[in-house]
Amino acid sequence: MSLLKRRVLLLVLIGTMVPSTAWGKWSTEKRFKLEAPTLDGSSGLFRAVSATAGYQWDLRVGMHFEYFQHNEFIVANWENCGTVCPNEQNRRFQGAVTFGFTPWKYLEVFGALFSTSNINVRNHLEPTQEPEVQMALGDWLLGVKGFYPLLKGGVSLGGNFGVKFLNSYGDIATNAKATNIFFNFLATLDVRPFTQNEVPLRFHLNLGFVYDPSHAVLGDTMNDYTPKAADSSEKHHAFLVQQFALGLNHSRFRVGIGIEAPLPYFGGLINPIVDIQLDVATGQPNKYIAGDGADIQRWPEFNDETKDYNIEGRLSSRIALGVRWRPISGLFIDTGVDIAMSHQGFAMGPPLPPWNVFFQVGYMFSAKSTTKLKRIIKTVIKEVPKIIKPDPTEGRVQGVVKDAKTGVPLAAAIITFPGLGLTDLATAEDGSYTTYKLKAGNVKIEVRHPGYKPWAGVAMVVVSKVVTLNIPLVAAAPKVGTVIGTCTDKGSTPLAAQVVIEGTESKKLAADSNGTFTVQLKPGAYKIKAMMAGYFNRYNAFVVEAGTKQSLTFKLTKRPKRAIVIIRKSYLRIRKKIHFAYNKAIIRPDSLQIVEAISAVLQENPEITRLRIEGHTDRRGGYRRNLKLSQQRAEAVRDYLISQGVEASRLVAKGYGYKRPRVPELTPRHRAINRRVEFKILKRSKPYRPKRRRRRRRR
Q1: I need a labelling partner for 648 at 20 to 30 A (CA). Which of 14, 353, 444, 625 fits?
Q2: How far is it, in rounded angstroms, from Cα 662 to Cα 674?
């Protein structure tokens, strides 16, 4: 290479790595115009929104992740509480995918899709069905921002408006009652135009309001989560955890302040950012906690009269400190931490995490920046190549593809060469193959054939030689599984029952005279029902794996001539009592027919979507012992119903001890009446319509 060419290349390299003053100003201005999205999608800092949006037709996409972990955060520990202290551990993972688009130079459309998972582990004060992991998946946001620049672009004013849609709790459908609506006044002051780009500072101010009815996703009143006089504070603890996990809050006024310093370096940008957010909640605090007559002092964690607990506080504030890095035009990487300075009282809203780490990465597509970069790369250095005949550097691979077990050659096996861009090969009738000329060294080879597992390996190609590589293929596992079933009555007498299978595929068949059936099914999850006239239906669930066999047994129970279970509007009427072993939660054998009848009724009436199994005792024995025994007996009935094929999500067990007697306990017969299990219908998928009784005609 000549000395002149070397000098030209050196100048180009210096121009891209160490800019002059003019290059630095151009780079700072143009790269900074490619605005990055906030954690909610609109262009700005981390949380403060700017009153600008880059050039027309700019498109911004981003993805961020947040993490927080703290002990005794939501349900704080208290002193001298023995072994029932919560010992709480809370972790939260949160993230979103965002976008922003500028269809007009003074207008931006933005949106985001959110996902949150919260894990709360603690010692509960009483039996609870609260899950440790609670998730809010699929919440999404759409908004629009308008603005107008003043004073040579140094000052911009505008506003934004948006709607955030929240999914229903435990569902993927949007809950319209919980929809958030927000709007903000926006102002941005850019110091650079007033100082000829010598002072790289920008300031942002947001003033707005958030209408937030997000508590509607729970579908219950606050009274359902607040302890009464006879309860512990466990119900409210569960509500506080759920409120934080799902991000439920009150309507609030919001003030946001953001400061950034876009510092040029080697043609790029690095932005230190300080982002402050203050929220002032509106509305009234939870009256069951902070209102008139609220007896909060009876809860163990609030029985210290010397302390001033934060109950009705309305102000929450946090500061975000971090850095936004633009290593190349278009790409941005954000990292930072939120630090809580104050948060609302627990009667108003969820607490702010003491700290929260976040990381965001994204890209900004802009026609403006592409046009500018094209002007830099214009000089093309051409050299006349000298044609030199190369030395041989290639070789071939040959061999036979065969069955690994039998050694039989396999024809029409497909051979591919990943990453080389070569056409696939097929083996001949005798299973043989010969490759193209390949460059010397290790070459990846993959082989596939119907009914066999794919093979992948490496061949060592030698210059000017043919290397032999025989490839054995292992037969693939069968694509179906086998299920063998037996249908009998309680006395093991075979029954020719009808069998209905639903799942990955659906089938109907009948057991033979010996009560047996055999069926082959594709892999997957299935539900099966065995039916016989005069008997209760039996249900089961199972999973089929390819190449496996499994056996199922169905013992059908005869239906009594008179129905044991009758469906009413709000409960199931049981003609016979369910008996348990003395002072235990074990169902006696003579009562299993009753529970099986209940199982049949529930599975034949899927419109009953939520049933509460209530356990009750008499007054003999201590309160705590009876409460525990009644809970265990209710759970025993629930477990047996689940074992009979009833979905667990339809059942909830609750023990009441002797708190809800039917009659005064004056005699042993009265105590026997109070010892019972009841079944309350909590939810239906369609309205209740009683069956009309047929009147017998007189002859």
Answers
A1: 625
A2: 6
